[in-house]
Amino acid sequence: MANVLAFAEQKEGQIRGVAREAVGAAAVLAGELGGEAHALVVGAPGVSTGAAALGAAGATSVAVAEHAELGDFHPEAYATVVAAHVRDGGYGAVVFPATIMGKDLAPRVAALLDVPLAGDVTELKVDGGAVSVVRPVYAGKAFAEIRLAATPALLSIRPNVFAAGSGGGDAAVTVFTPEVDPSSWRQRVIERKSEGSGALDVTEATQIVSGGRGMKDPEHWGLLEELRDALGAGTALGASRAVVDAGWRPHGEQVGQTGKTVSPSLYVAVGISGAIQHLAGMRTSGTIVAVNKDPDAPIFKVADYGIVGDLFEVVPRLTEEVRALKAKG
Fold first, then answer.
1. CA-CA distance, 186 to 138, in Å (whole number)?
2. Angstrom distances, CA of residue 179 to CA of 108, 160, 202
């Protein structure tokens, strides 16, 4: 019997959706290992608010490490706190979200515990008492199955792939104050700069309208904004890497292997050819709609609905039809 720990990521004191996914994955492993799923939240005083709700995702208990110096993510401090908690708890496995924070934190914790790490996992199970995972390799062209024989088994899960569990009621919450020595930190957050748009993050969106080089010019993005607005709340704008590299759109909107992984209920790809790197970040979307003038574009191989035509004619018409449908209720 072994319990499994999920690192529950928070941002500005609010527990993120990826935390519930990590807890859900931990609950699956715990069920197969005959243990319980626990969660760990690290942050400033007050971050424990809402921690009990992780019980609904599958956690039976939540430990909250609160310290005034931990409001911002400090890699060394967070890694030390997490590694110590894993040792003290004797966990059989630890699950991190493969977010920007998780990709920085998980390898540090693995180094402190002297165990291997399987990153960006898309499937997991227990085989013969050991955790076995599947992760994409070669830009998603192949998948590797890896058996983690070390204890604890450390892994990070790809966001928007695993569903949050369903544990029922609130989890038991324990708050503690970890030992923190800021003078030893080699990295510190000295300033935050917001993009200022207040736009919905693509990883949190239920619908995404993405544009590629077929848009021809950043000034044409208004077409996609109008379609986004027509689709309504929960819709975000996305972009291909080529567009971001050209400086047309901010990196925060990039979908793909080197951007963000998304899994919305609806993904509209406009003027995107569908390179394997882009597909790796959105192919798990519920319904994929592609608009491209090239009938042989790779995006059509994964699309549920494809429109071959001039996007400058198709998108305005599509926007009109969406508005008409919305008006009918």
1. 33
2. 18, 33, 36
**C-alpha 35, offset from chain centre:** 25
Within 8 A by CB and 6+ apart from 183, the residues are none
Determine how many CB atoms are found less than 10 A away from the CB of residue 94. 30
- Per-residue pLDDT, 297: 96
The residue from 131, 154, 184 where one domain ends is: 184
Give the phi and the psi of residue 136 in degrees, each rounded to 5. Answer: -75, 145
pLDDT band at 203 (very low <50, low <70, confident <90, very high): confident
The tokens for 56 are: 């609904």
Beta bridge partners of 38: 5, 61
Report the number of distinct structural domains present in the chain.
2
- In angstroms, rounded to a whole number, what is the distance separating the alpha carbons of residues 303 and 273? 11
Q: Which two tokens stand for residue 306?
A: 């494809």
Q: What is the mean pLDDT of residues 158-172?
A: 79
Q: What is the band of 159 on the pLDDT scale with cuts at 50, 70, 90?
A: confident
Residue 241 phi, psi (nearest 5): -65, -40
Measured CA to CA, the distance from residue 93 to residue 130 in angstroms comes to: 10
The whole-angstrom separation of Cα 88 and Cα 102 is 21
Q: Convert the pLDDT of each residue in 78-130 to its tens digit.
A: 999 999 999 999 999 999 999 889 999 999 999 999 999 999 898 999 988 89
Distance CA 114, CA 111 (A): 5
Q: Are 16 and 47 in contact (CB under 8 A)?
A: no
Q: Which contacts (CB < 8 Å, 24+ apart) does range 185-193 have?
A: 185/74, 185/76, 185/77, 186/76, 187/74, 187/75, 187/76, 188/74, 189/72, 189/73, 189/74
Question: Encoding tokens for residue 223?
Answer: 């077409």
Q: Which CATH number fits the domain that encloses residue 279?
A: 3.40.50.1220
Residues 30 and 178 in one domain: yes
Q: Are residues 25 and 163 in the same domain?
A: yes
| Per-residue pLDDT at 277 exceeds 80 | yes
How does 31-55 read in b/e, with b if 16+ C-beta sit within 10 Å? ebbebbbbbbbbbeeebbeebbbbb
